[in-house]
Design brief:
This protein is of the alpha/beta class. The protein is 21% helix and 23% strand. The chain has a 6-stranded mixed beta sheet, with helices on both faces. Helix 5 packs parallel to helix 7 and helix 6 (147-154) crosses helix 7. The chain starts with 19 loop residues before the first strand and ends in a 7-residue tail after the last helix.
């Protein structure tokens, strides 16, 4: 069925009418800079949803085809097929002037961008639409958001998975159905302006070998270098900088590109140098030696302590008051060594005294069954009553920022999930003062969703919302500071890729950037490239990637299986570009699960920040041999530069 033949009771679809180019690629691997496209299919649709063109071909990449068990494309089958540069102009003609559409669109776009760059041609795509991101907004009642699952939900036949042409035809049906649902909910499309990702600045650098040793601290006067020491170099040197770095790495030192309070020593032949590294070293009291002394000490580097088998301390609880210093986040009060580990923050099941301003969840000691589950992450925790709003998704409209925060907190305390956007999963709407002027209320009324005032949150009476919520898989709804164990498949280790997706309400006041830091046991990055942000969306080893899913959502993908032993924590944060604050933006919603389209394990709505411009959203951290996810929600008044410096990255250096 085309868009033009949609049922007459649906809203006008003119705002969703574009010329589309639907794309699917099968590839020899997952890294666009390194791997190659083995087959490509393009189906074009007009603004009415009717197909206007189709092209598909196998490609001979001139290399090993990779996981044949996934795509079925053997070297023998690809032999004799054209190379990409032979069909690039034809593909470009189909893409020109159209919105590129794919499921997990950044993957397909990046592979095409790199293939066009190899052919020395321009990829003629200005905007793209990800059907995964679109359905994340629609929120259909499906077990997951994989293309096959969505096809089954929308009644689109699928003949052969991982066949580029069939997947593209299926994608066309999913797009048509998704656009109708977006129109029904009056959702803006998550269109993404496409940067020239084939340019060198977007290409990940060759992997840097992580240092295998823990940082033993600073170099003492007259003392030796020890494996694991963090060493930075600044200024002109007689020996080529690259040679100094290679010799330091070969000796087991951690050669850094910036200086922090955890730097062991700075190497420079100009003690009065005015570089950013030298200024930071003087401010932090980092020892400074010249090149000759460094080369001499390299002749007798003492053995260090391996990262393997070291104990991992439990992170401080997120709800602890925090102040921002020049060095970065610093707790106001640090537990004494004999105080034991900080208690976990878990969802509260007790209602506050007043629905107008319920208190934020407070820490408490885990119950016996929780402690046992923490010691054995593979074991499921005992189910407990979650409250009258269990399984409900509640959207709050209107109110001041503190009032809206209090209402959403109350929803979570009652066992529900707090929504920030209208979607098919919303079951109830709470309208505070001023909420009657929200433009979404007319659509909410047309959808026959139950609408309540603030008093409903005292003792909510639940009625079934027509068509909402049925069949939806349950996820852990975490309060600010809440923790969940990541599953251990087969009792051995976590799923390879784990994602954290952050989303926020559509607004025009500012842009929000999601960033990631991979930290060692000192809460510092091991090297500058472990700071992943919009300018460098992938770290050198490809273990952490930033995916731009739309103007109001971004995803961080972490390969937990290949993180080096030195990586103890992955911090996901958000930073506002410009002078607005999170009080202007409102709540951020995070969803976390294994992979970009799998069912989510946990979700949280984070909106405690008011005057802050940066916010820690989530931490994925080691706990013994397992991993845990913490919903943080801690904001800072400082900008991204100060936050990065606190983790050992000088963004101005």
């Amino acid at each position: 069925m085309s868009l033009a033949s949609a049922p007459s009771d649906l809203p006008d679809l003119r705002d969703y009418a574009f010329d589309w180019a639907l794309v699917d690629v099968e590839t020899s691997g997952l890294v666009p800079r390194r791997d190659r496209v083995l087959s490509v299919a393009v189906v074009t649709l007009g603004p009415d949803g009717e197909q206007t063109g189709e092209f598909s071909t196998l490609l001979d990449p001139g290399c090993d085809p990779g996981p044949v068990h996934v795509h079925g494309l053997t070297a023998e089958r690809l032999r004799g097929a054209p190379s990409f540069d032979q069909v690039a102009e034809r593909i470009g003609a189909l893409l020109e002037g159209r919105v590129l559409v794919a499921h997990n669109a950044q993957f397909d776009y990046d592979f095409l961008a790199h293939e066009f760059a190899r052919a020395r041609l321009r990829l003629p795509v200005a905007r793209r639409l990800c059907t995964l991101a679109l359905n994340r907004r629609v929120d259909p009642p499906t077990d997951d958001l994989r293309l096959g699952t969505l096809a089954a939900h929308y009644g689109v036949p699928q003949l052969k998975a991982h066949d580029a042409l069939d997947d593209t035809r299926v994608l066309a049906g999913v797009l048509r159905a998704s656009l109708r649902q977006a129109a029904r909910l009056d959702l803006p499309l998550p269109l993404v302006a496409c940067p020239p990702r084939q340019d060198a600045q977007f290409a990940p650098k060759p992997p840097k070998t992580p240092c295998a040793f823990r940082n033993p601290g600073r170099l003492t006067p007259g003392g030796p270098l020890v494996q694991g020491m963090k060493v930075a170099v600044t200024g002109e040197t007689r020996t080529a900088r690259a040679d100094l770095v290679l010799r330091g790495v070969a000796a087991g030192l951690n050669m850094m590109g910036s200086v922090s309070r955890h730097t062991s020593v700075l190497v420079t032949d100009d003690a009065a140098a005015d570089s950013a590294k030298a200024r930071r070293a003087r401010a932090e009291g980092v020892p400074v030696i010249d090149e000759s002394a460094f080369l001499r000490l390299l002749g007798d580097v003492r053995p260090g302590t391996s990262h393997e088998g070291t104990a991992t301390p439990e992170p401080a609880r997120a709800a602890q008051p925090v102040r921002m210093t020049e060095a970065g986040p610093s707790p106001e009060a640090v537990p004494t060594p004999d105080a034991g580990p900080a208690p976990e923050v878990v969802p509260s099941t007790q209602a506050p005294h007043s629905p107008a301003l319920p208190a934020l969840p407070t820490p408490r000691t885990p119950e016996p069954d929780e402690t046992a589950a923490s010691a054995n992450p593979g074991r499921k925790r005992a189910a407990r009553p979650r409250g009258p709003l269990s399984g409900r998704r509640v959207l709050v409209l209107g109110g001041t920022h503190p009032e809206a925060v209090a209402a959403r907190t109350r929803v979570v305390e009652l066992g529900g999930a707090a929504a920030i956007n209208l979607s098919a999963g919303v079951t109830d709407v709470v309208v505070l003062d001023g909420g009657r002027t929200d433009r979404r209320l007319a659509r909410i009324t047309a959808l026959l969703l139950p609408v309540h005032d603030a008093a409903w949150l005292v003792a909510p009476v639940v009625t079934e919302a027509s068509g909402a919520g049925g069949g939806r898989p349950a996820t852990h709804v975490l309060p600010r500071g809440g923790v969940v164990d990541l599953p251990l498949p087969n009792g051995r280790g976590p799923a390879d890729r784990w994602t954290v997706t952050a989303s926020w309400a559509q607004q025009t006041a500012c842009e929000i950037d999601v960033v990631t830091f991979v930290l060692d046991e000192d809460e510092q990055v091991s090297f500058d490239e472990d700071f992943v942000f919009y300018g460098v969306p992938e770290n050198p080893g490809g273990t952490v990637r930033l995916l731009s899913d739309g103007p109001t959502e971004q995803t961080v993908s972490v390969d937990l299986a290949t993180l080096p032993p030195s990586a103890r924590k992955v911090v996901v944060a958000a930073a506002i570009d410009g002078s607005p604050t999170f009080g202007d933006v409102g709540a951020l919603h995070i969803v976390s699960g294994p992979g970009t389209s799998a069912a989510a394990l946990a979700q949280a709505t984070l909106d405690a920040a008011t005057t802050e411009r940066t916010m820690l959203l989530a931490e994925i951290y080691r706990r013994g041999e397992s991993w845990r996810l913490r919903a943080v929600g801690q904001g800072y008044d400082h900008g991204l530069g100060a936050l990065a410096r606190g983790y050992g990255v000088d963004v101005t250096d």
